[in-house]
Amino acid sequence: MKEKIDVKKAVEIAIEFAEHIYGGDAEKSPLQAKRVEEFDFLEAENRWLITLGWNDTAFKEIPSAEMAGAKSKIPRTFKIFHIDAETGQVIKMESKEH
């Protein structure tokens, strides 16, 4: 039996996958202020669940709110990546409401 990947490798795989599908490259990541939010290992399914969060780059400040001194919170995107612990393949990606 092949040795399973550890959580560090699962996180690397999740980040690389997210950057690839959202149009990133080695020089510029589309995922701003990214971080690992949660991780879990499902023993019965032999898979890692890695939750990543990043700033929504589609967000635009409303000029009138900025001029009025209002501070708006930049929305974040949260995705859960299911990664096979033996092969390292991303099996599924799903949105997580926060």
Relevant terms:
alpha+beta, 20% helix, 98 residues, elongated, 2 helices, single chain, 4-stranded antiparallel beta sheet
What does it look like?
The chain is an alpha+beta fold. The protein has one domain. 20% of the residues lie in helices and 36% in strands. The chain is built from 2 helices and 4 strands. It has helices at residues 7-21, 63-67; strands at 32-42, 47-55, 76-84, 90-95. Strands 1-2-3-4 form a 4-stranded antiparallel β-sheet, covered by helices on one side.
Question: Briefly, what is this?
Answer:
This protein is 20% helix and 36% strand. It has 98 residues and is of the alpha+beta class.
Q: Strand tally, please?
A: 4
Overall pLDDT score: 85
Round the Cα radius of gyration to an integer and report it: 16 Å
Parts with pLDDT < 50 across at least 5 consecutive residues: none
Main structural class: alpha+beta
Strand content: 35-45%
Proportion of helical residues:
10-25%
Summed up, the helix count is 2
**Helix and strand sequence:** HEEHEE
**Which strand order spans the largest sheet, edge to edge or round the barrel?**
1-2-3-4
Query: What number of domains?
Result: 1
CA-CA gap between termini: 37 Å
Shape: elongated
